[in-house]
Amino acid sequence: MSEPINVSMTVNGSRVSCGVEPRSTLADFLRQTLALTGTHTGCEMGVCGACLVVVDGRVVHSCLMFAVQAGGSVIETVEGLTERAAIADLQDAFHLRNALQCGFCTPGMLMTAYSLLSQPGIPTRDEIRDALSGNYCRCTGYEAIVDAIENVARDRDAASIAQTREEAGA
Amino acid sequence: MKARAFSYARPSTVMEALETFADAGEDASYVAGGQSLVPALALRLQAPQLLIDIAHIEALRGVELQGGWLRIGALTRHCEVLTDPLIARHAPLYHAAAPHVAHPAIRNRGTIGGSISHSDPASEFPAMTLAMGAELELVSRTGTRRVAADDFFIDLFQTAIEPGELLVAIHVPVIRPGHRWAFHEFARRRGDYALVGCGVLAEFSDGLIEQARIVFFSVGNTPLRARQAEQCLIGKRLDEAAVAAAQALVGGDLDPPEDEHVPPAMKRHLARVLLGRLLGQIMRQDS
Amino acid sequence: MNALTSLDRPNSYIGRSVPRPNAKRLLAGRGRYVTDFVLPRMLHVAYVRSPYAHARIVSIDAQAAREMPGVKLVATGQDLARLCTPWVGTMDHFKGMKSPPQLPLPVDKVVWSGQAVVAVVADTRALAEDAAETVAIEFDELPVVVDIDAARMPGSPVISPELGSNLCFHGKIDTGGVDDVFANAAHIVEEEFHFGRHTAVTMEPRAIIADYDASEQQLTVHHATQTPYQFQDIYSRHYGIPESRVRVIAPDIGGSFGMKLHMYHEDMAVVGLSIMLGRPVKYVADRIESFVSDIHARDHRVRARMAVDADGEILAMDVEDVTAIGAFSAYPRTSVVEGNQVYRLMGAPYTFRNYRADLQVVFQNKVQMSQYRAVGHPIACAVTERLVDMIAAKTARDVFEIRSGNLIPDDAYPCTSPTGYQFEALSHHACLAKLRQMMDYDRLRAEQAQLRSKGIHRGIGIATFVEITNPGPAFYGVGGARISSQDGAIIKITPSGDVRCLISVTELGQGTETIIGQIVAEHLGVDRNRIKVITGDTETTPHGGATYACRGAGIGGETALQAALKLKANVLSVAGAILQEASEKLDIQNGWIIDAATMHPRVELAEIARIVYFRSDTLPPGTQAQLSVTHHYAPQGYPFAFTNGVQGCHLELDVETGLVNILKVWVVEDCGRIINPLLVDEQIRGGVVQGLGAAFFEECAYGDNGQLTNGSLADYLVPMAVEMPDIEIGHVETPTLDTQLGAKGVGEAGTAAASAAALNAVNDAMAPFGGSIAQLPMTPARILKALGHI
Ligand SMILES: Cc1cc2nc3c(=O)[nH]c(=O)nc-3n(C[C@H](O)[C@H](O)[C@H](O)COP(=O)(O)OP(=O)(O)OC[C@H]3O[C@@H](n4cnc5c(N)ncnc54)[C@H](O)[C@@H]3O)c2cc1C
Ligand code: FES
Ligand code: FES
Q1: Does A2 sit within 8 Å of B5, measured CB to CB?
Q2: pTM score > 0.95 for this model?
Q3: What integer pLDDT is reported at residue C2 of this predicted model?
Q4: What is the pLDDT of residue C408?
Q5: For chain C, which residues lie within 8 Å of any Cβ of chain B, measuring from their own Cβ?
Q6: Mean of the per-residue pLDDT values for chain B?
Q7: Which atom of ligand 2 is nearest to the CA of A43?
């Protein structure tokens, strides 16, 4: 009955096709089968945010999804976003601001930040904290993370204004 | 914390889903967003033999106006409830409640149909379904039926949905000009299930309250209408005295379970405070 | 303002905010945590746990489990008792303390709900869990001891009958004269305080892989711990494996805060399971298991009073602390240290000399309670600081005024506390003054009064504290525990002139490797990018205390400093031989040997290394260059390096709902020499938030039957981003003169006083209503009760 099912999906730009036990969560599948251990699990029930990944453009908990449910989906993990430099500025800002200590929550924090900053405008500190409401961090006390995200939001906004000006001027 | 083994099916039509369920007997479970079901499986609190993934059934999607009703497909995600302009306009209590439902990533997958089917007594959407007097469209192999919200929430995690039946859509009567509404909840932390929450929908005519639905959640086994409080407002102008009268009655409307950490007296107290604030808010809206 | 500071010298790193080089890896998702490790032929264990808090094990039927798919071994307490000797969590210097012996898995009875009873090892964790479900254990329930008073009542059931009672330890401190002082005092304030249990909830749960290779009789343990040497010693002694054949590796660790330095039954069992199977066995606690098996913290009831004269001078303090620790004392650090620090730190910032305290440490049927960040400090601080605020109220003085009148003057050091702690130099008054200015206190008070008239109720609370850091052997060693208070470092220069430093202090994200790199770079005279710091492997790093009690910077840092100076002398000696120059005339800067007087570069360090390693034939005869040094450092001056500080908390209380909005927290802290302000500040912020968690949210709730009723991350409330405030930090720097580095510890300061300041702030907000609260966490229910609403 619960035999492995063949599942195909795109993970970090590569097509993956393999047999998966239906009970394997997407988190376990990514970590164990694909060795993408940048995605962490801290609670396996949706309350810590360490396991966030992007599925079809939306940030979701990989512990609250079975890998079979992701069949046909496009998935990105922290490794993929790092490789295509989609979060390089966030990573730099986290580094400079020391917005991580043990680093276990960090991939999830980056996912939330990535998603928040893909919307237009500069979020307020309260909005950043609100976006982080499902991301637990035991080490930092959150402020440095909020600072880092705020800094990137400002920088991106300044850069896009500069670009618009340049285009208008050209 | 690993789920027991199960097998998996992904139907693409309602009929296929219903057949698959029927073939499996009662040891199957539908999964929509999985945001309530997957934790229950991980904790081995539930262990169906078969998981039927309904997330790819087109007929369960979409938000559209149908006459005086707004039809919200069961698969509409919480994040869509938050941003959909039709819902904001015609089913405003869902819109107001959505930011309080869990956290962004859970809202990205959780579905309104899943929330209502699951019917956690602390959930926002089931309560707002009752507050807006919505109707639930259910389909089984024998056909389709519409159940009024007042008849839908039966007991703890128990609704009018029969085994194997699917919730297809929620039909919300659209807001009319005399309507005023307010929503709020008291929660320990952002996104937590509320200590006490409430949605109020009142219809005014010539400055008098013609109809009122006051629904609390997290105060009993199901979302609860505060009927005595509602009743005492009918035909009245909403002023300080009317608010106080409704507040005085609300304790008797509720039935909070014994809980050492949040005792019933506290829930009743919070419900009174909350109702006072919500009616106050409506009072201050122009009328 | 172009004056050069010490930071303008080349290779000046101490005092500079430099980011952590090792953080980049974690940001890229390339961390290597034990949870990530996969070893060849690795198996997974799941445990069958006791549903009862106290019960006799009648029988275990595991036949069905043995026949389940993928199962390789089912082991019981009996099986493991054949391999592992029992451990007892006592130390000699706690006179009269007692605790029952522990084995990996119980043989005859369980003493807390959630205790692991049977181990099931299988190919995957899921298969192990499947099989674990089929194990049938018959229990015979025993009366449960939960309440601290009932536990000590004559005739109450005794959890370990061989110990005679449920009292683990009874301590007393009495300077004498306390009764007289109270009898003649102008005012007395008193209160009964309750501090709930909370727990570490590290983001990465406990994780361990034991790999026993019978062919070499070699045990390798990948262990998410902050103290690998301690566990090397424990595994070696209890499993009878020579220490040289036990290797403990602590890779990246997802948080510890003291929680991952205790011996856990499941972890000890994993070693035995690997020995039985000859294969690697992995155990990762899931979050549900963490709640019922990680140590819990605090759990105190304190009755305390203070006597004051008519001028508001505190004269004496009288304290009774009862703390409950579970059914046995934790190993190897004991569960008495928490209470010991509570009753010794009471009143520590103040001048009074008359002190009496009674400490009772009690057994009960709950999971073990032991050291967690800021051991004992938050309790001592909250009790003391709340009483001081009560005195302020009683004598109609402001909370700053009452403190400046009673804190030990900044010029009164060295001095000794009534409980015997020796203070080298603290700066309470300087910190207090700085806090007042940072908070803009007078404006806050004016605003508070104005808002009150509009029905908005804000509270302001402050709390001074003293923190214990850099403990010497008086902490554990004298009690017979094999826990080192010294550290060791090996520093080597590689053939290309790079530097490797292997050191016994460990990295938990607090930045150990970064500050060690800064210290070595500065004192050796090289660019810090050329230094690689290596920690967390007993096979390669020297034996040391590793990380506990805020010792990494103060002791580990001094070790690195002295080692770097020793290596520098070696380098200059060989450079002198090569350059035909007196080595005293040379120095090292930016990786170059320079002329010390003219700063003129002479030869690159890399060139020295090349010659030493590859062309020793060109060195003057008799020159044996030593480009590696090993150095150990043990603190010898004061038994502890005390630090101090003060925190302020500003919050808004919804007096109708009991919900609190924390608006802001300020901290002024004196940790001596600051090596890296960026890291210090983030230690404080993280610590404050843990303290605020304890103040408002975190509590392990138990039912009368000893069941944990909120043991999941959905029910146990940790502090999250929305509810936590921004935290402003200021510093006063009073370096310790015990070391050349001058650094003390800082990791626990934030936690020490955050809940005390919050407690005072909530009480301040409630003051107009006549309510008061003396219990943590301050939940809405408790606040509503204090306000008389329910
Ligand atoms: C950490 C966390 C916090 C949360 N906080 C909140 C909160 O504050 N408020 C809140 O309301 N919710 C909260 N939730 C729950 C969340 O909103 C869920 O998404 C929702 O309750 C269920 O929706 P789902 O689509 O995920 O349903 P699923 O988990 O897929 O299903 C839930 C149940 O409904 C059944 N079901 C689903 N869809 C249908 C259908 N169309 N017809 C018939 N049966 C169906 C399933 O068989 C299952 O029994 C939280 C969840 C988590 C993990
Ligand atoms: S592991 Fe998925 S949210 Fe914690
Ligand atoms: S950095 Fe450790 S949990 Fe966030």
Answers
A1: yes
A2: yes
A3: 46
A4: 98
A5: 125-126, 129-130, 133, 286-288, 656-657, 659, 697, 701, 709, 714, 717, 720, 722-723, 779-781, 784, 789-790
A6: 96
A7: 4
pLDDT computed for residue C1 by the predictor? 39
**How do strand A14-20 and strand A5-11 relate by DSSP bridges?**
antiparallel
Could C781 and B261 be called an inter-chain contact, meaning their C-beta atoms sit closer than 8 Å?
yes
Res A168: pLDDT = 80
Cβ <8 Å between C36 and A77: no
Given a cut of 60, whether residue C17 has pLDDT beyond it is yes
Tell whether ligand 1 has an atom less than 6 A from the beta carbon of residue B222.
no
Helix (H, G, I), strand (E, B) or coil at C53: coil
Domains of chain C, CATH where assigned: 6-31+486-633 (3.30.365.10), 38-142+201-293 (3.90.1170.50), 296-473+637-786 (3.30.365.10)
Looking at residues C728-743, what average pLDDT do you find?
Answer: 96
Residues with CB under 6 A from ligand 2: A 41-44, 46-51, 61, 63
Across chain C, mean pLDDT equals 96
Residue the block writes with tokens 């419900």: B271
Taking CB atoms and an 8 Å cutoff, what residues of chain C touch A93? none
Residues in chain C: 790
pLDDT greater than 90 at residue C199: yes
Contacts by residues B226-234 (CB-CB < 8 Å, ≥ 24 positions apart):
B226/B250, B226/B253, B226/B254, B226/B271, B226/B275, B227/B253, B228/B252, B228/B253, B229/B253, B229/B275, B233/B202, B233/B209, B234/B209, B234/B210
Going from the N-terminus, what domains does chain B have, and what CATH number goes with each?
A: 7-53 (3.30.43.10), 58-173 (3.30.465.10), 179-286 (3.30.390.50)
How far is Cα B24 from Cα B7, in angstroms, rounded to an integer?
A: 11
Please state, in angstroms and rounded to a whole number, the distance separating the CA atoms of residues A20 and A6: 6
Every domain of chain A and the residues it spans:
5-82, 87-169
**% of chain B residues with pLDDT over 90:** 96
Using a CB–CB cutoff of 8 Å, tell me whether B25 touches chain C.
no
Provide the number of CB pairs (under 8 Å) joining chain A to chain B. 94
pLDDT tens column, A28-60: 999 999 999 999 999 999 999 999 999 999 999
| Portion 33-92 of A in contact with B at CB < 8 A | 44-46, 49, 52, 58-61, 63-66, 68-69, 71
How far, in Å, CA of C115 to CA of C107, rounded? 12
Which class would CATH give A5-82? alpha beta
CATH number of A87-169: 1.10.150.120, 1.10.443.10, 1.10.287.990, 3.30.1360.40?
1.10.150.120
